[in-house]
Design a protein that fits this description.
With about 290 residues, the chain is mostly helical. The protein has two domains: about 1-80 and about 265-280, no CATH class; about 80-255, no CATH class. It is about 65% helix and about 0% strand. It has helices at about 1-10, 15-20, 30-45, 50, 55-65, 75, 80-95, 100-120, 125-130, 140, 145-155, 165-185, 190-215, 220-230, 235-250, 265-280. Helix 7 packs antiparallel against helix 8 (about 100-120) and helix 8 (about 100-120) packs antiparallel against helix 13 (about 190-215).
């Protein structure tokens, strides 16, 4: 049982399946549990079968793996923010497993997707119009009263060929939050959460760049020292990301349960409970 717990704590579902598949380890191979390991491993590897919503594929997965919320849920799969939710959950497992270099690399696409989703769902700017293939012809967006002047104040001039990066998106969002918070958003927590995510990302990016240039692996001691110096709270950072994703989802009428923000720990709890109730270990001969 020790090895099973170790695999779950390190989110190593492939190894766990290999252990459970050995007939000398358990009396009877439990196909349902092995299928569950297949599914969770597929999900954590960010398989295209999971991320690219296809009703036929998802229904097939749902038929094969009927295990409550760890199975297919069309209310979540069918939305464009679903990939962000899955990617964020995998990033958290890398953090918890102390693969900090990988975790830091995953933060940039998470942050960029959050920015685009907030523009789309909160401020109702269609990313398909403003962000075609990451080349933006965004004059309609910049016609918003005061935004062009605000950008010029930050030495940013936008034209038809402008490439709007994370930095520029951040400035645009701060402008929108400042000018639309009371009338359109009505929720100061949304702005506060975005500010936490933005500020923390910018700080953690320094550590990511340092690691990339030095080619050194970041260990727990390095991270703890950096976090203390920069006055960062990783737990608040994660809570703020979760809150922003839940706000984005709510605009599509979807309430995301807390288990979806601790997805792999939730699935681990399910697996442990199932093992305890259904798997019988051989008794050693005395």
């Amino acid at each position: 049982m020790y090895f099973l717990n170790k695999c779950l704590k390190t989110y190593n579902y492939k190894l766990l399946k290999d252990i459970l598949s050995k007939s000398d380890y358990i009396f009877a191979i439990d196909e349902r549990l092995l299928n569950t390991m297949d599914y969770i491993h597929l999900r954590k590897s960010l398989s295209a079968k999971i991320l690219n919503y296809d009703k036929v594929i998802i229904n097939d997965i749902s038929e094969k793996y009927k295990y409550g919320y760890i199975g297919a849920n069309e209310a979540i799969y069918s939305h464009d923010w679903y990939k962000l939710l899955e990617y964020y959950n995998v990033a958290k497992t890398e953090y918890l497993n102390e693969n900090f270099s990988t975790y830091l690399l995953m933060l940039e696409p998470i942050y960029k997707d959050l920015q685009i989703m907030i523009l789309d769902k909160i401020f109702r700017f269609d990313p398909k119009v403003f962000f075609p293939e990451m080349k933006y012809s965004a004059f309609d967006l910049f016609k918003i009263n005061g935004l062009e002047k605000y950008l010029l104040h930050h030495d940013i001039l936008i034209d038809d060929e402008s490439y709007i990066n994370i930095y520029v998106l951040n400035i645009i969002l701060y402008f929108l939050f400042e000018n639309y918070e009371e009338n359109n958003l009505g929720e100061k927590k949304l702005k506060k959460s975005y500010t936490v995510v933005s500020d923390t990302y910018e700080k953690l990016k320094k550590l990511r760049n340092l690691s990339a240039h030095s080619l050194l692996r970041i260990n727990r001691e390095d991270l703890d020292e950096f976090i203390a110096e920069q006055e960062i709270s990783v737990s608040v950072f994660h809570e703020s990301i979760s809150y922003l994703i839940s706000c984005i989802a709510s605009k599509d009428g979807v309430v995301i349960g807390h288990e979806y923000f601790d997805l792999y720990d939730s699935m681990n709890a399910y697996v442990l409970k199932y093992i305890e109730n259904n798997i019988y270990f051989p008794v050693e001969n005395k």
